[in-house]
Write a structure and sequence with these properties.
Elements: H1 15-22, E1 30-33, H2 40-52, E2 58-62, H3 65-76, E3 85-89, H4 90-98, H5 112-118, E4 128-131, H6 139-148, E5 151-156, H7 169-176, E6 181-184, H8 193-200, E7 220-223, H9 227-240, E8 245-250, H10 253-265, E9 273-274, E10 293-298, E11 307-312, H11 326-336, E12 339-347, H12 359-365
Parallel strand pairs: 1-5, 1-6, 2-3, 2-4, 4-5, 7-12, 8-10, 8-11, 9-10, 11-12
Helix pairs in contact: 5-6, 6-7, 8-11, 9-10
């Protein structure tokens, strides 16, 4: 096996990203951390291509189906002859290796102890594994991956742990072994300065990252009178910004479906899209995230995505939550940092939700 880094030219990477990628040996386990907008998903795809060039099967894994689709498209643009790389969800990867009858626990997730016991009997257990948004997978997954992969490289940000079965950076590193390398990627190449500053109100843990230099629109908190008012506002955003990708991130699939029906009747220039994790195929599963227009997505599927404009229309759905809750703050941290240029935080009702109180005055001062 080749142990030196293979000289593959990737002109779309920044110098900092190049240095991070080039500094990762092609052997061993590694954990790469970084804030939103630092390019972790792009680096994960490049890392997978580098590892594939060593001649071993390589797979790029994530927990989210929608992010898997996005990574698949990214890999298609990085294809190197003779070094194919696949993208899959961690769930489907396990089922392919252990079969549809892979043992599970009562919560519906996998029985990691049982799978580890079966791992020795599974043939071809030495591919390179690269994981994007690795904080969303449990320590049991990494115990299994350590046994069944020639190397494991994980890209993660523990400030974005939205799933119940998650791992901290320390847990991932410890589980993969004492020789696991650690690297950090810095910089924010996605968010405008105002958006990154708003995200800081919700971030939990970690050091404060430097704010981007690029400036954008001031974030807005907007009260909607009803669903029709929300629909008209999103329609106006799409009409005034015909080349923009507008992500509407909801906390209710029912709201998403109702909003989608109204947007379809609005006869937008670009057909709106809705992602449903329950769909097995078709228009609600196979989205085109590269074209302009409106995309409605549940917050649980927003990780790893980015849009020119992000609308969070239903902040009142979290009104009963503790404003200091780490889970709540992480959710908003992730949603806000999906935006490149503009963020709208919407609400309905008689009172501004507690977790966004005070932000109106802060926004006016920016």
């Amino acid at each position: 096996m080749t142990t030196a880094n293979t000289p593959v030219l990737h002109p779309d990477l920044t110098p900092v990203q190049h240095d991070c990628l080039d500094g990762l040996p092609l052997t061993g386990n590694h954990v790469v951390s970084g804030p939103p907008g630092s390019g972790k998903s792009l680096l994960a795809a490049h890392r997978a291509v580098h590892l594939a060039l060593t001649g071993h099967p390589t797979v790029l894994l994530t927990r989210s189906r929608l992010l898997r689709r996005l990574l698949h498209d990214t890999l298609n643009g990085l294809t190197v002859p003779g070094a194919p790389v696949g993208a899959a969800t961690a769930h489907s990867w396990i089922l392919r290796r252990f079969g549809r009858d892979a043992p599970r626990t009562e919560d519906g997730w996998f029985d990691w102890k049982a799978l580890i016991g079966e791992a020795a009997d599974i043939p071809d257990t030495d591919p390179h594994v690269v994981v994007d948004e690795g904080q969303d997978l449990p320590p049991g997954f990494y115990r299994l991956a350590r046994l069944t992969a020639a190397s494991v490289t994980v890209f993660a940000d523990e400030c974005q742990r939205l799933t119940e079965t998650n791992s901290t950076l320390a847990e991932i590193t410890e589980t993969l072994g004492r020789t696991t390398g650690r690297a950090e990627i810095t910089g924010n190449h996605r968010n405008a300065r105002q958006i990154a500053a708003l995200a800081e109100h919700f971030r939990t843990g970690g050091g404060r990252p430097d704010l981007p230099f690029r400036s954008g629109d001031r974030p807005v908190i907007r009260q909607y009178t009803d669903l029709q008012d929300l629909t008209e506002h999103i329609t106006a955003l799409a009409e005034h910004n015909p080349r923009h990708r507008i992500g509407v991130i909801v906390n209710s699939l029912r709201l998403g479906a109702d909003l989608m029906a109204r947007l379809e009747r609005a006869a937008l220039a670009q057909e709106p899209q809705l992602y449903s994790s329950a769909a097995t195929s078709g228009r609600y599963r196979d989205l085109d995230l590269t074209r302009p227009g409106v995309v409605v997505v549940h917050r649980a599927s927003a990780k790893g995505l980015d849009f020119d404009t992000v609308v969070i229309p239903d902040t009142e759905s979290d009104a009963a939550a503790d404003p200091s809750s780490a889970t709540l703050r992480m959710a908003y941290y992730v949603m806000v940092t999906r935006a490149r240029e503009r963020v709208v935080m919407g609400w309905q009702g008689c009172r501004l939700p507690r977790h966004v109180e005070g932000l109106e005055a802060w926004m006016r001062d920016q």
